[in-house]
């Protein structure tokens, strides 16, 4: 974790719908097992590309990003009703303990500070869920960050377990991994 932060000057690239080939909307919603009354935290929400998917189902979504320029882009694009933008670092969330039913993070885990998982364990209620999708170190590097800046499903799963979650799924695909866990 802790690798370089995605350049907000390249925010347009995050809105490229071909990104769904790495994680589709259906796949994300299925992994999160969202119900209509869920409160979701999207960590490293960027331009809201995947946040919008979550907002189509959840009752409340906190879109957390450390770069105000990303929030500004999302505001300009149009923020759906259930979404609240939070400018914050993933290791210091302005949310109460147990405030979230589900935490989701897409293509961001490798950028997060080391203690972000501990903070997510504080914010996700007992029995709540965590979904992490990110570029895998076992991939080929055809897109996304360099292989040296990536993690894989197994090392991420070990870190997630150590933070107080129980891993339920850990799948490695061609360029990405998908992990689900329960608090
Ligand atoms: C590669 S982008 C992915 C954005 C979005 N999740 C998506 O898949 O479209 C990573 C995002 O994480 C944000 N980020 C990086 N470090 C962060 C941190 N410590 N706390 C919150 N957000 C962070 C960056 O500003 C950037 O918007």
Please give a structural write-up.
The chain has 183 residues and is α/β, with parallel strands linked by helices. The chain has a single domain, classed as Vaccinia Virus protein VP39 (Rossmann fold, 3-Layer(aba) Sandwich), CATH 3.40.50.150. It has helices at 11-14, 25-32, 51-55, 68-77, 116-123, 153-162, and strands at residues 39-43, 60-65, 83-87, 100-106, 124-135, 166-172, 176-182. A seven-stranded mixed β-sheet has the order 3-2-1-4-5-7-6, with helices on both faces. Strand 1, helix 3 and strand 2 form a beta-alpha-beta unit. The longest helix is centred in the middle third of the chain and has 10 residues, at 68-77. The two termini are 21 Å apart. The mean pLDDT is 96. The structure holds S-adenosylmethionine. S-adenosylmethionine (SAM) binds next to strand 2. S-adenosylmethionine is lined by residues 5-6, 14, 44-46, 49-50, 64-67, 70, 89-90, 106-108, 111-113.
Under the CATH scheme, the architecture is 3-Layer(aba) Sandwich
Helix residue percentage:
10-25%
Largest sheet properties:
7 strands, mixed
Unreliable spans are: none
One letter per element, helices H and strands E, the order comes to HHEHEHEEHEHEE
What's the oligomerization state? Answer: single chain
Radius of gyration: 15 Å
Through-space gap between termini? 21 Å
CATH topology: Rossmann fold
- Number of helical elements: 6
Beta-strand segment tally: 7
């Amino acid at each position: 974790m802790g690798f370089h932060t995605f350049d907000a000057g390249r925010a347009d690239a995050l809105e490229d719908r071909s990104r769904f080939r790495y994680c589709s909307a259906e796949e994300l919603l299925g992994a999160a097992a969202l119900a209509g009354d869920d409160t979701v935290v999207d960590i490293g929400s960027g331009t809201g590309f995947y946040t919008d998917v979550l907002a189509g189902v959840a009752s409340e979504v906190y879109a957390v990003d450390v770069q105000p320029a990303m929030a500004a882009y999302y505001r300009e694009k149009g923020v759906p009703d259930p979404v609240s933008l939070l400018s914050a670092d993933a290791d210091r969330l302005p949310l109460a303990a147990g405030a979230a039913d589900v935490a989701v993070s897409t293509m961001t885990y490798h950028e997060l500070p080391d203690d972000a998982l501990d903070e997510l364990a504080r914010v996700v209620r007992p029995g709540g869920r965590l979904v992490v999708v990110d570029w895998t170190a076992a991939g080929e590097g055809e897109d996304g960050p360099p292989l040296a800046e990536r993690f894989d499903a197994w090392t991420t799963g070990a870190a997630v377990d150590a933070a107080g979650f129980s891993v339920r799924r850990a799948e490695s695909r061609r360029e990405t991994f998908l992990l689900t866990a329960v608090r």
